[in-house]
Amino acid sequence: MKKHIPENERMKRAYASLLEEADGKDEKSVDKILAAIWTFEQATGHKPFKSFTRDHAIKFKKVLDKTKNQRTGKPLTHATIDSTLRLVQEFFKWLAGQPGYKSKITYSDVRYFNNKLKNKRIAHTAKPRRIPSMSQAEHAFQAMPTNTVFERRDKAIFATLMLIGPRASAVRSLRIKHVNLRENHIYQYGGEVDTKNGKTINSWFPPLNPMYRDELERWYRYLVDELLFGPDDALFPKAARTIDPEGGFKYDTLSRDPFAQSGPICATIKTAFENVQMHPFTPHAFRTMLVMHYDEISPNRRTFKALSMNIGHSSEKTTMSAYMPVSEDAQRELVLGMNLK
Fold first, then answer.
1. Domain that holds residue 102
2. What pLDDT, in 10s, does the model give residues 65-92?
3. Is 0.85 topped by the overall pTM?
C-alpha cells in the first residue's frame, strides 16, 4: 500500500513545477524524475525528507543493486541505477537549499548518492546496437501484407520510416497537411508534430528504392481521395471505436485521430521483421541504418550534412557520434586496412 507524507508531496510538487516552468522539461521527463524519487521513498521506508542522512543514500544504493526489473525479472542495468541515483541526487541538492531544509540536509551528505566510478563508466559505455541492413529492411517491407486498411496503413508507416528516418513519436503525430508529395517533402513542424524537444524538421525524400515513396503516396491518396481526409486529419490514424449491433464495440474502421502513444508504431515495425524471422528491430534502428547508408553513398561532406539535417540534426557531428557505431571488428578492419604511405 502506498504511503504518502504530505510535506514530502508538497516539496515534490514544488520541484516538479520548477522543472516544468523554469527548466522547461516536458511531462514525460518530470514523471521519470518523480518516479525515481518515489523509488527512493519506498527503499528508505517513506521517511520525511527532512530526516535525510548519508545512511539513507547508502541504503538506497544497496537496495537498487538488489532490485530486479519488474518486466524482465533481471537485475536493474547499470544505466538505470546510475540514472536513478543522479535524478534523486539532483532533487536533494535542490532540497538542501530550500527554507526549512537548509539546516536539515547537508550537501556533503547528498554526495553519498554518487555512484561508484566503475559502475558509472559501465553505465555510460555505449553498447553494441543491432540495426537492420537496407536489404533486410527491404525484405521485411516487401513481405508486409496489404489485405486490410490497417495493414495498408502499417506498410505506409514502414515506408515513411525508410524515407526520412523520423522518430516514432513524430510518425504518430503526422497530419495530412505535413506531407507534400509534389515536393517529396514532409514538414515536421515542432508546434504540431511530436519531435524531440519540439524541433521543426524539414525532410525530403532521398533517392532510395522508389517503392517506399509509391507506398506512401498510395496511402495518402486513399485517405484524401477516397476517405476525404482533410489537412488536420492524422496521416496514420488509429482504429475508430464503433458500436457493434450484436453488442459491445468493434474497431474495423479508421478514425481521423492519431495514436495517443508511440507503442503501436513500434509494435508495427517489430512485427514486420518478426514475420520474416528477423530480429524485432525498432523504428529508432532505422535512423542508424539510414545514417550508415548515407555515409556510404554521400559523395562529399556537404551532402552528408544535408542528409544529417534531413533526420533532424543541426550538426553532422551529432549524427556521427550518435548514429555511426563502429564495432570492434570494424575497428580492426579499418585500422589494419589503412594505407599511410
1. 6-123
2. 999 988 888 999 999 999 999 999 999 9
3. no
